[in-house]
């Protein structure tokens, strides 16, 4: 009996099929008329609040655009600023600094190697001329 009782108390979250079953369930028959009316009133109030919030957000977005225009800010300037900030942030990372040091060191070694090769070639040409 205890095993059956545990099966009724599932601890797993609802899965797709379970969510569909809950969504299609008709809970209205379990509610009293007063509860239904209260929920309908709450629904109307929430919809009104959402509409108001959307209107406020839209007005604030328009105001933001106006301020940016007055300040001479446009999309290109913002992109430049964002790029500059991102580039600066990247340059200050440890990985970038280590990579930069490694590449610098490799460049110095490559320069020295090319210089040595150039010197060796010049010496060989000099030897060939003397013969």
Automatic annotation (TrEMBL):
Q: Which UniProt keywords apply?
A: Coiled coil
Instruction: List every stretch annotated Disordered.
Output: 1-33
Pfam families for the chain: TPD52
Task: Establish whether keyword Membrane is in the entry.
Answer: no
Family membership: Belongs to the TPD52 family.
- What this protein is called in its record is Tumor protein D53 isoform X3
């Amino acid at each position: 009996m205890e095993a059956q009782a545990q099966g009724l108390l599932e601890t797993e979250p609802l899965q797709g099929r379970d969510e569909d079953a809950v969504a299609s369930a008709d809970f209205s028959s379990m509610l009293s008329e007063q509860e239904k009316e209260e929920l309908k009133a709450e629904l109307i109030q929430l919809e009104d609040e959402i509409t108001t919030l959307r209107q406020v957000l839209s007005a604030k977005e328009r105001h933001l655009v106006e301020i940016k225009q007055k300040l001479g800010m446009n999309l290109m300037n913002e992109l430049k600023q964002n790029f500059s900030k991102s580039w600066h942030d990247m340059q200050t990372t440890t990985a970038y600094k280590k990579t930069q040091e490694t590449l610098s060191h490799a460049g110095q070694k490559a320069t020295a190697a090319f210089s040595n090769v150039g010197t060796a070639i010049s010496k060989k040409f000099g030897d060939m001329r003397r013969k």
